[in-house]
Write a structure and sequence with these properties.
The protein has 283 residues and is of the alpha+beta class. It is built from six helices and 17 strands.
Amino acid sequence: MGLFDKKVLSQKFDERFSKETKEVLVVTADEMTASKSRDDEYWTAMISILGYIDLENNELNEKKRYLEWEITEKQRLKSKLYNLKAGKIYQLTVRESKMFENQYTHQIMEKGRWLMVVEVNKRDCHDERLERILAEYQKEVSIQPEGCESLKLDKSLCLFSGKGMWNKEECYIHIDSDGDGKETANNALKTYYELMRYCEEWDQKAREFAAKELTDLANDWAEEDGIEITNEDFMKRLEISEVCVSPDGDFELFYNDDDMFYGHVIIVSGNIEDGLDSADIAG
């Protein structure tokens, strides 16, 4: 077994899963991602699945689940160890996650929401039921709200995205779908239409709010140039790049900074009912 194929397993990760193993056929949805908190010994690799078949009883489970396994930094950079890909069917040995309570939201997470990969037994498998699920998932879904081109649904992000107009300027529009597995955006569209109805007013308010919050900081960044940026200058230099809309009236406006913060984006957040609440730089 080479360096990149060596399996690792921390006690913290191991304790999240039952000791019992099971053989399953899974169909993957999206590409692998990896995350690591400050206290973690290893990276946690993850890939979502659209469903799986328990090979002991041949039962199909169509609930979205997540495969997880631990990897080292070198394995993450080289995409090694298991090397699972999107849109594939694999035969795996897995361990189900235990039921637990989320420490932040206090939501009870059901048993088996995550499956630890113990072994990849077969690749490029075939199963009619899983192939139908994958074909349905891969169908393109789009909506076309007024003022936008066709917005395509990214099912992994539950987000409709595409080009549109904001206060007579072209930008990207992102609208949250109605939830995981949903192909509509009815809740967020209510926010979108209300926001667009008064986009000129919201754009002016957002520029004024960002200038009030960030002009002093922009002048700190511009000290070397010896040029003072006024609130009015700041407002004029902003250029809309993205509009992100969520249910319950929440939205974010992304502006290009005209190099006032060396190419960072300025994000103004707010709510249709409550008004604007923050302006930050990011990226």
